[in-house]
Amino acid sequence: MFVAAAVFLILALVAVYFRSREYRTPATPATLNNPGRPAAVNTRPNTVALWVAIAFGILFIGFGLASTVYAQDTGESKVQVDISGNIVGQTTESGFHFKAPWATLHTFNIRNQTVTYINATGGSDSDNNGNTRSGPYITVQDKDGVSSNVSLNLQYSIDARSVTNIYRSYKTEDNFKTQFIGNSVRSVVRQVPNDFTTIQLITKRGSVEKAMITALERRWKGSGVHVDNFSLQEITPPKSVTASYAAAQQAQIQVTKEQALLDAKKVQAQQQVAEAQGQADANDVLNGHPLSDAALKQREIEALKSAGEHGSLIVVPQGSNNILNLPGTSAAQ
Question: Between 20 and 30 A from 228 (CA), which of 193, 307, 311, 318?
């Protein structure tokens, strides 16, 4: 913008220089009735040059304003750098701002940024949410020496006050994402699984994710970059490990099932022992204290009454006289 404004200014000045046009009047000789006149140089306005100067002047003003006034969106931070490469200012608030015409702007997005490491599917270079992926999944090695593939999604934001220091170190936002964000994320994701076994990596994903967040926050401390969200999408060990783990899980399920059956049998046996012990205790009591004839007769009556209430058939020996009068029921035979 600044260069274009300077060019238009020069063109406008050149057009102003030619705004008037000179022409020479030739000399006329003297005659009897005309004294004549000598040759002369005259000027007249150059209308075309005048309008060209006005047009270039308007372009100079327009490009001049465009090179000194800029608009800033919410969530952006802009660094002003002069032609010598020195930082001359920074703005963090949205709205219109002024700068020197020769200063250039470098914009950094300080709102939530997304980093995604996941394998592309179907030839697409985007993740499942439509975001452009930062790279393929990251291969890690756990405490047991087994390699697994890790897919993740990270959201981070930048402290506006740190943008100047970030520019000094990385110059552009793309360099910052590649050299700082990308390298540190891959390094942490590869480092943390070294403290977990293969089984822990599969079964304790929450602990692995928490350890990665802690390590990343520790690495980014003081840089002005903050972890807003970190999510492990997938941890994919080799197929052989997955198959072995599934077989071990099935075996554990079978062991649990057999143990439950064994416990049930033990309980059943204990119940039978308790019943037998109770019957033995009852027999001991009866042997030590036999029931009287009246008590035995009462039990017989109660048994017959209960059988009659439930419609049972009672068979008695031929010739016996066991007809009883029971209250509330008809005579039973």
Answer: 193
